[in-house]
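Subject: Protein entry, chain in single-letter code together with its fold tokens

Category: Structural biology, sequence-to-fold work with a learned token vocabulary.

Notation: Tokens come from a learned vocabulary of local backbone shapes, not from coordinates.

Start of record: The labelled sequence and token lines come straight after this line.
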Amino acid sequence: MQETETKPIKILGISGSPRNMATDFLVREALKIAKEKYGAETDYFSAKGKKLNFCIHCDFCIRKKEGCIHKDDISAELYDKMIWADAWIIGTPVYQGTLSAQTKTIMDRCRAVVAKDPKIFLNKVGMGIADGGDRIGGQEPAIQTIHNFYVINEMIPVGGGSFGANMGGTFWSKDRGAEGVSEDSEGMRSLRRTLKKLIQTTRLIKKASSGAEPEAQKPEMPKGEK
């Protein structure tokens, strides 16, 4: 058995919400499932209460290749977690039909890490979660923006596949926070399906990197999906 097969997948969950409510609950729930069902190692970063400076396009990171000019909680806490992880889960609340300013700031500030090492995130796998007060209020555009970020940074974005999950984990909170999203059975189904794809894809990437023969993913059908 290859060494990489014996090591658990490392997953980072990022909540881009300024509150500990629906998004915080969902990212933590995804990490809990990843740990309990798939044996993953997990870590977590929440934007709540953190000092997150906007990217000011000063090009310090390009000129110096020493990281970001801002010495805030992204530099102090998040960069190392991002590098450590094999896969990421980025969760965002829907604000004005797309992702939150906190989520966008976190993504923008990754430029400093990539400027230092352009291949630092190569082949890491990523998924998105979005929750909103309306059933259809911008969840998919928000996840698409997260997927765009993954592609630009040479990561591999995954959705949950057709028949129920599509872009990723999409939730209707009904403006009732964690209680609201926990009662959204279709949202929870989309989360479980997308997380399964994240695990499968990350395992395939790790096997390919080790030189082992990857196992083909079996096609999924909606009937009986848990």
